[in-house]
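ESCALATION

Customer reports they have been waiting on this structure for their group meeting. Please prioritize. Original submission:
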Amino acid sequence: MNEQPGHEPQLDTSKDSPWETALAQLDEAAELMGLAPGAHEILRAPKRSLSVSVPFRMDDGSTRVCQGYRVHHNVTRGPAKGGIRYHPNVDLDEVKALAMWMTWKCAVARIPFGGAKGGVAVDPKGLSRAELERMTRRYASEILPFIGPEKDIPAPDMNTDEDIMAWIMDTYSMNSGYSVPGVVTGKPVAIGGSRGRSGATSRGVMYMIFSTLKSLGIAPEEVSVAIQGYGKVGGHAAQLLHDAGCRVIAVSDVDGGLYRERGLDPEAINRHKKEAGVVAGFPGADPVSNEELLELECDVLVPAAIEGVITVKNADRVRARVVCEAANGPITFEGDKMLSERGVFVVPDILANSGGVTVSYFEWVQDIQAYFWSEEDVNDRLRQIMERAFDEVHTLAAEKHLTMRQAAHWIGVGRVAEAHLTRGLFP
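Update from on-call: job pushed to the front of the queue and completed.
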């Protein structure tokens, strides 16, 4: 990749940093499409980054302080949109990368949002529910100047849920003096949430897998699927794919996984996990580690956990024919190159998991209009947008002899750059 005027030297992507991966993907897209250096330079830098101290009271009366972040990568096409995650390893570089991917994701899906992301460096499992609420409300208070239905709309992400969104919405509303349901999405239906939102990312992953299989001439009933990350996205995706006739042969969570060649029953696994707290130990299945799951022989591999799990160290051992990125950034830049060289069909994250932000957009629209849709209507609109986005990316990939990731970034970066050029530079 040629160094662009005014840029740092090419990044060392062997370090597997999400931010380095995101920049490398942007740089590659800019070179492929001949993006003007000025626009490239603007898109490389987040518009604004906020780092905040989050002090809150523990149940024993002591005070704990965590580090929080909120990043707006780009707001040229509309308000910033992006989730909030709670995880001990959250840092500014990770949040910047996730915000950049959100920018491209919204553009690829033709959703009129820009990209944002937020997070707190904390393990929520170590907090009581009351402590979690106090921390959330303090974090919301610290980022209050950043968020709002016209400028930045948070949503759930890793280790956050609709209850946390309700606390953020209430904190914002109490400071405003009136209810503002449109300040967050992914909240309970009782306070303005959208039907179909909770499973939207998983449903979008299913639509992407089906579109991929259709393009390859394969019926869903003929494929085996392995899913790393049996959480909100991976667990629901397993159920949807199983119900559609796919054979789900392996699943895993942070504590390990299960493998059964003839297929697993997600409903039975859900019952086991509810009792045991983990999927490991499910009767009638062989144990498998998260690392081993990625290397199983299967038709479709769905990394639905964290970023950077497929790298130069293991990409040559991935035996799936299709990899559908339900997580953000699960494949590093160099790992992706290795998969491409081996002919693995990768459905990139900015396309594959855009179902969540698409239905978040629907929720925001419904809140603004105070008019709510049926779940069937939500799912049908989601399917149309996801299938259209896949067709646009797949067509460009074929025309330009690109990978699906290159084509998705070409489209996403191109639409954002076009918006910048159309609006001009102020002042």
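Sent to customer with the following note: The radius of gyration is 21 Å.
Escalation resolved.
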